[in-house]
Structure to design on (258 residues):
């Protein structure tokens, strides 16, 4: 099986295109979520640009970019870095690198190809064709399959790595090795990211932080606040205040007096 036989939704989880008003900066955030992404940016009136690979985060990163005409982001489902990019996910953890550093000349050529694209759909099609050409090994490796099955269990509500390993019939050590290679972080770190993402989603419609903590899988509200400090560098309330657009959507801005 190769990429030509696959639809994008199988290995791309999310595609977004943004075009900030001329002269305005674009604020970007990337929270820990166990995902690797591909970013295409058109700069300087669309005449120049670049393509970057952002690996899975263990800590949040916030950036502000000016001079941006448009940006298209493809976020891969966990476990697809090896067949799609040709490198293990652990080589990209907490890194943002030019695609040229990963693919060489092919990375430079893709950037020029995307600058010539006339629509979002055209950009996506050209990226898909480039990924097809770069795929150098079978997609369904045993290690990748194991990691993706573990991801589904952890995102489905299982919280103990040992239980995940038992359900998959492997040792915890074997699971950690496959997870790190294919996802870029260990299963315990991934479980923390799952809790964080759940809490962020719930906070968009609720300010009952005790309930959010319990429903997201934390021991208590103090555990939630501590994880926000460690993974995001902010209190939950401070994060909601700075998150683009959330001030008008969230019913509460404070989680802990922060």
């Amino acid at each position: 099986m190769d990429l030509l036989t696959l639809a994008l939704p199988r290995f791309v989880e999310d595609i977004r295109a943004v075009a900030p008003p001329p002269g305005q900066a674009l604020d970007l955030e990337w929270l820990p979520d166990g995902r690797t992404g591909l970013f295409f940016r058109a700069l300087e009136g669309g005449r120049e640009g670049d393509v970057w690979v952002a690996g899975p985060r263990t800590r949040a990163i916030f950036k502000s970019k000016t001079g941006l005409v448009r940006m298209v982001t493809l976020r891969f489902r966990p476990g697809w870095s090896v067949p799609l990019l040709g490198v293990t996910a652990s080589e990209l953890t907490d890194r943002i690198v030019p695609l040229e550093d990963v693919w060489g000349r092919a990375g430079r050529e893709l950037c020029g190809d995307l600058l010539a694209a006339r629509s979002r759909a055209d950009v996506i099609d050209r990226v898909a064709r480039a990924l097809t050409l770069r795929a150098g090994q079978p997609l369904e490796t045993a290690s990748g399959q194991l990691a993706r099955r573990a991801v589904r269990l952890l995102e489905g509500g299982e919280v103990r790595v040992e239980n995940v390993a038992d359900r998959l019939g492997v040792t915890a050590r074997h699971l950690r090795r496959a997870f790190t290679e294919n996802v870029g972080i260990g299963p315990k770190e991934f479980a923390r990211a799952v809790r964080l993402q759940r809490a962020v989603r719930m906070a968009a419609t609720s300010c009952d932080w005790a309930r959010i903590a319990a429903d997201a899988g934390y021991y208590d509200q103090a555990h939630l606040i501590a994880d926000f400090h460690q993974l995001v560098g902010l209190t939950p309330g401070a994060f909601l205040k700075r998150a683009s657009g959330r001030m008008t959507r969230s019913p509460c801005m404070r989680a802990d007096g922060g």
